[in-house]
Amino acid sequence: MDRRRKSDGLGPKSTQSFSVLSQPLGNRREVSFSAYALLFSEIVQYSRKRVRSTTGLEEKLNDIGRRVGSRALELVAIREKVPTRSTKVLQILSFVFNPVWKFLFGKQPENLRKVSESESSYFIEERDPLVNTFVSVPEDYGSMNCAAFVAGIIAGVLESAGFPAKVHAYNANDSERTYPPMTLYTIEFSDEVMAREKRPGKRTMLNILFSVGVFMGTFALATNTDTLK
Amino acid sequence: MTVLMIISPKNRPVFEAVIPANSLSERQLILSQLAIFAALDMVDEAMWSSKDLYLKVVDRFNDQSVSAFVTPGNHRFMLLHDARQDDGLKAFFNKLYEFFIKIALNPFYDDEEPIRSKAFSDRVRHLAQEYL
Which residue, A139, A220, B12, B33, is most buried by CB atoms nearer than 10 A? Predict the structure, then answer.
């Protein structure tokens, strides 16, 4: 039975059954930029026909991005030399900033910063996002930005890693009309993430318990010697 | 006797395999499911204090152990196995992780959906023969 099963071609060198499971995960092929741009323009057009407002369009792009993001997380993680999970906000942010961005767009965004007024908010600045290369938003669409798709990807990565967050894409310096334009992604983590972040780790808890124990011990000793006297 | 379960981030079992197949009575199966679900609490605690994917043995149940592996996307692989065997476990989980990603990358697979692929379960059994 076992032998038959092996020769059935369940091993990696199977020729019998074609399946996604026999495809290698490691090799990385570059995708043609024109194909990518065409696909993205189709996504935008498809979504545009199905919404009534620019915010609706942004939401739609955001949703599509989410599906990309949750898949990108696992794939990028396994292609790292030592796959790890992120347990802290800064770890997951630098994971998004560096490997994920490189995998998706072949470059890094300009800046990752913390919003100084808020504990739970960060933003990423990117000059000329890849998806916007051939996009020029009509005047009457206001400040809509097709990088909402990228914002969705970020949200998808963060959410499936266990850090649910609201992510939005904005045009920065709208008044100055700099070229190429800067896009801002604001990331606002939900309260549960910040609560978990503040929770002391196992080691600090042990330290606290230990010092409390030592304090109680000395206290007991002191009172004991007092009564002995 | 080994039981493998994959639990989605929203705590839904998406895959289950008893290895070797049909080696458990219905009552035993329910009992081992219970043991695995009970160990989930331990995993939830351990997974935020370690960066590793493989969390080793997280819980014990009579003479059996529950080992866990958490993917970066918070899918949890739970394995109920005999206490002594632990050599091939890490390699087993890593291979399983690769197969799981290939399933999850399929655009026709939605999150939280049970994995019904015959090829997947065949391969999991094959892996188990090789490593466990």
Answer: B33
